[in-house]
Amino acid sequence: MQEAGGDMGTGDKENHSSEPHRNVLETPLKQAATSQSVLTEIQPLTTPPKPKETPPADPWTPTSNLKMLISAVSPEIRSRDQRRELSNNARDVLPAKPCLQEHLSGDEYEKSHPSRKEKSLGLLCHKFLARYPDYPSTAENNYICLDEVAEELNVERRRIYDIVNVLESLHMVSRLAKNRYAWHGRHNLSKTLQALKKVGEENKYTQQIQMIKKREYEHEFDFDGERNEDMARSFGSIEHSEMSFVELPGMEFRAASVNSRKDKSLRVMSQKFVMLFLVSTPQIVSLEVAAKILIGEDQLEDLDKSKFKTKIRRLYDIANVLSSLELIKKVHVTEERGRKPAFKWTGPAVLPNTQDTKLETTSTTCSPPISDSIASKEQCSKNLFPSRGKQNFTRHPSLIKLVKSIENDRRKIQSAPTSPVKISASTDPNLSAFPSQMAVVPAIAKQQLEGQSKKAKELKMKLSGSALEFSVSSSPEAAPKPEAPRNVTPSQQPSLGLCPSSHSAVPPLILPHPHSGVSYAIYLHPSQAHTVTAYNPSFMLQPLPCANVTGAKSVNSKGLNTITTEEGDGQIATDEPTKSLTAQERATVKSETSSQRCLKRSQALQEKNSIKRFRSDEENFDTSLGESIKNERPPSTSSQVNHEMDDFQQERQNKTETSDQNTANCYEQCKREDIPEDEDKTKQDIAVAFAIPAPETFFPSGYLIPLTQCTHGNKASVSNKEKAGICSVQHTTYSSPIAGVIPVTASELKAVNIPAFHITPFNIMLSPTSIAAAPMLSNSCLSSSNVGSAQNPSPSILNFTLQHVGLIPAGVQVPANPALQHVSQPESVGRSSGNVNLQEEKPPVPKEPPEPQPVTENFFRTPGGPNTGSSLSVNPNGTERISQGTLYIPQRKLEVSQD
DNA sequence: GACTCCCGCCAAAGC
DNA sequence: GCTTTGGCGGGAGTC
């Protein structure tokens, strides 16, 4: 660096600057001039035409490039080599140049002149970088003289600016003064990336990306004003006007007033571009998307093709430099329309999050962590939000309320006489593992639920097969277990633990229990909750006195959350997806990251374009969100539960927040996209999401079954709506924490202020029709559903439902009820069946078995929500077994209802 | 024809 | 007023 500067002298600069064209040609001359002594000596020798190719003297040729790289090791060597070459070349060059200018004219010179590629900014950047060590010692004088560099690299200064600007954006270089920069190398890179990631998160780039993708999918992205406006609006809403240059504490570039044009500067663009990688889950960003985002930020007006092209050009410039830095790699993303140029982040994971590494490998962002484990999730969320706070990820107020309400409800419930003691040992382990289990729970719950439902419905055959599959897919660990349910359970178990937690998480409506005098928590199917919220948002959050309602339904706080979030729309959606993903990943530990899934899904969706399913999916997602939130909470003793609840709630919030953005985008995309083919995956996701809610076990089958069943079995044909209906059916049986599962009648709902029928489209719980609609449901389910619908649930029904749900061990039955009994078949069976479905839905077998699995062994646990069942199973009575924190309450309710 | 992106005009900023 | 920076877009090179 210095060397060159010293030698070359800035004087040359002017020449260059003044005459760029000549510069190229002249540069060598200048160099020659620098080494005139040598050159002069040589000149006579080197007359020949070769000089034309003098380009080698320029680094343009491969050999020269190599030399450059080698020399790069040390400036001195470099300079020496260069000088030597110059001298050597000088022979050729000097004479040559004159020749070039004089004789050669354009053709030869051009021939000698490297091709365009050889002139590429990327190559130039390589050369530039070769000049300086990645990690320069502070002792060294790491100064860059642009003129010198330009001369040495034989390029016009303009090009150097392009490189320097990008490097500046990464704080690899800082401007010291006019025409002078300091080389920092990669010392600050990690910090810079961290900062950029944070900023990117704050700016909700993930959401923006998702939005853009959605719109692209929905309708081809034209640069129509309207659409652009929409986008811009969305961006605006999401964002903030312009993002100024991100500086590191010690790296201010203000010196030299570098910031003058900054807003549009390549530096800022570069940073934004990097942010997109750091924030996006796949860490693959297409130029188009990046350009749109960058344009969007700038302003709507800019959304014309010319602007777009310009942005693309600039992005190419930036990308070339980043590629030279090996931070990104060019790739192609095949989409509906075909291949699109894109770039994949190949740089270091963002340091702040160790997880980031995972993220990169897996899919990055929060989603990966989710898959990994709760802990990872937590870390991820912490990393993401810690300093910032929630800034952009602000949690939806409703969610906060929900959380609080949930906690309160839980506490109440727990404190309630019936509040179960901690769940059996199974739960305990779960508790310990709970966090990690949390993630798995949803999936498990789904599986269990599904499996149970199926079991109830059909024979072991299905169960066994499904169970096996399920175990395999969802939780490899589980598979080995003799009992399909158990197999499932492992994965589910966590969910069980989670369920309680989830339970807590979900703020049930608390209704006074007429008999017990204890208030009941009403859990609604997420979808219902959703609808309900729509009707009466407050409803969910606030405990409602409902004298009429004996059975309390647990309104999925999640559902509420989702609802609220849904309002947030994309965010919510995204959240949901993430949740689902998390659940899936946790439970099944899918290899694919959520982001990847999302991508795949989105792609598939794009192709398929089935909005119908999409809607249903959305609902499911919504529910899943709420559920996922619920799930997160681990079962534990009442006291523990409370604490855990709090922790989990926060975690949830964090997770949800973190995941929201990441997942939300994917989710929304998925929704819009419809995920037809990926239905399986989507279903899985959904199921997972449901599974999460499953913790509410009360309706687990409802949620899970519908999805899985729909996908697989007879029900496969069932539309999403139907699925929803199924879910509702399952939900038909409601459990109140205290009373246990209590069918809620529409009237009850009304009492609660819940428009039971309004709840529909899912009506899941309430409307018998919905039940009927769900063929998927086993008879038991139906019965249960009926019961649910029926104001007076028969004990048999309760038993059945409980068993079916997994709340109660198959053997255990509350009151004898033929219909229920048969239904009540071993839980394991049902679970297995559920698993089967899940497997099918989840083709991608989870790479990693969910940590929580060990816990799952209890079939009770197995069902995730069912978990309650597991806990219940422990206690045939159900209630007793019910672990404090969780679902058990429902069981109790069940018992009560049985009574 | 689309994709890339080099090239350099030209204006803002700085000195 | 000159130089430095760097935004911007035409259009050439590639595929």
What this model shows, in words?
There is one protein chain. The chain has 899 residues and is mostly helical. Helix content is 62%, strand content 5%. It is built from 42 helices and 10 strands. The protein has a 3-stranded antiparallel sheet. Strands 4-6-5 form a 3-stranded antiparallel sheet. Strand 2 and strand 3 form a beta hairpin. Helix 22 packs across helix 28. It is elongated and about 110 Å long. The termini are far apart. The N terminus and C terminus are likely disordered. The structure holds a DNA duplex (15 and 15 nucleotides).
What is shown here, in short?
This protein is mainly α and 899 residues long.
Any descriptors?
899 residues; 3-stranded antiparallel sheet; 10 strands; 62% helix; disordered C terminus; DNA-binding
Topology (elements, then pairings):
Elements: H1 2-8, H2 11-18, H3 20-34, H4 36-45, H5 62-73, H6 75-112, H7 121-130, E1 143-145, H8 146-153, H9 157-169, E2 173-177, E3 180-183, H10 189-202, H11 205-218, H12 225-238, H13 266-279, E4 284-286, H14 287-298, H15 305-324, E5 328-335, E6 338-345, H16 354-361, H17 367-372, H18 374-384, H19 397-415, H20 427-457, H21 460-473, H22 484-505, E7 509-512, E8 519-522, H23 526-535, H24 537-541, H25 557-568, H26 570-588, H27 594-608, H28 611-631, H29 638-673, H30 679-691, H31 700-711, H32 720-732, E9 735-736, E10 740-741, H33 746-752, H34 756-759, H35 768-773, H36 779-789, H37 795-805, H38 818-823, H39 827-841, H40 853-856, H41 865-874, H42 888-898
Antiparallel strand pairs: 1-3, 2-3, 4-6, 5-6, 7-8, 9-10
The protein binds a DNA duplex (15 and 15 nucleotides) through residues 13-14, 17-18, 20-21, 115-117, 119-122, 146, 156-159, 161-162, 165, 178-179, 256-258, 260-261, 264-266, 306, 309-310, 312-314, 316-317, 320, 341.
